[in-house]
Amino acid sequence: MAEAWKIVERGGMRDRLGEGTYWSAREQAVYWVDISGHALNRLSLSDGNIARWHMPERIGWVIERRDQPGLVAGLQSGFKLLDLANMKLTPLLSPEPGMPDNRLNDAKADAAGNIWAGTMPVGADQPVGSFYRLGADRSLTKIDSGYAVTNGPAFSPDGKWLYHNSTTEGLIYRYPFADGEAGPRSVFIRIDQPGWGNPDGMTVDSEGGLWVALWGGSRITRFTPEGKVDRHIALPASQITNITFAGPKLDRMFVTSARDGKEDEPHAGALFEVDSGATGLLPNLYAG
């Protein structure tokens, strides 16, 4: 039986900590980052070319701007505007200027063009991370706190739910969501089964299924909109980190992984293309 995955070949290159997958319909390209490698990657689906840009510090994600060219990037020191054409980073704001050992980790934009982003300590060892909303007006609001590792913001297709992970606790939270505002959080899914790992990056499909990358679990798992396990797809690396749907029909899935600490795994740090049998949704863009 054919495997449900294949490796996107990059001349043997592997990411130390692949993360932050993002589909650019504008460029027909998949972006993702190498946090520990201080790099941004871009795969062009039209010709298969891969570009890699060095960054001056850890970078967790990029999101396209809706009404302007360029990207917003989440770096260790804060939110920045990124102009790749001229390789220019312009500071936007720092969510935690008094906490230099924290960094931005994972983010998504909502339909109104706000960015929802989490912070975490570099060592992932203290519950000093928080969850923020960067408004389209460039205001910053703290939504939640007490995270050692924040991950995987995602929105249900109907826009009624915001999902967010506390990775080290194995918890997927759900917040009622309306008009750019999140209500009180509740535990939606608790991942505590032996061998499953911990919830990392997430995305939703067009039917409302929640796809979760499982760090330490060598798999991605789809949960139904009701939070029930639907299916698993095994992958040949233990530290699976992030997921995005891509392509003109949004039926191509790309999944990142990490090599740090798993140098004995030949496929650790690879970018995988996965046959999920599902279709995704277009990502939202930042309106600021």
UniProtKB/TrEMBL annotation:
This is SMP-30/gluconolactonase/LRE family protein. Residues 17-259 form the SMP-30/Gluconolactonase/LRE-like region domain. It comes from Sphingomonas qomolangmaensis. Belongs to the SMP-30/CGR1 family. The lineage of its organism: Bacteria, Pseudomonadati, Pseudomonadota, Alphaproteobacteria, Sphingomonadales. Gene3D superfamilies: TolB, C-terminal domain (2.120.10.30).
